[in-house]
Design goal:
Length: 104
């Protein structure tokens, strides 16, 4: 039996999408419902983060944009990393997006 993969898009509000690769043989309605429930719980737990991501990605990224993330664990010093978006990064994201379209 061949293993076929496809992309399942879950929309958070309007502009944010989480693309999850699921094996067709393992996908069932109960799994989808569980995923949707987890998404709803995440939105309830972190409304400011969801609004932030929606705002940031309401328009396309452009070359020169700086993305930065900081992780602060309890009792530890914050760790920060950033990237300055290059055209090659945008090209990669576009290729991934196109690959995802072909999988549906």
């Amino acid at each position: 039996m061949s293993c076929q993969l496809f992309f399942f898009d879950v929309k958070l509000k309007r502009s944010i999408r989480i693309q999850i690769i699921l094996e067709r043989k393992n996908m069932n309605p109960a799994s989808i419902m569980k995923l949707m429930s987890a998404k709803s719980q995440f939105e309830r737990n972190h409304p400011k983060f969801v609004a932030f991501v929606k705002s940031v990605f309401s328009k396309p990224l452009e070359e020169g944009t700086i993305l930065e993330i900081t992780v602060t664990r309890p009792g530890a010093e914050p760790v920060t990393a950033n990237i300055k978006v290059q055209q090659s990064d945008l090209d990669l994201l576009e290729e991934l997006k196109e690959m995802g379209k072909g999988q549906v």
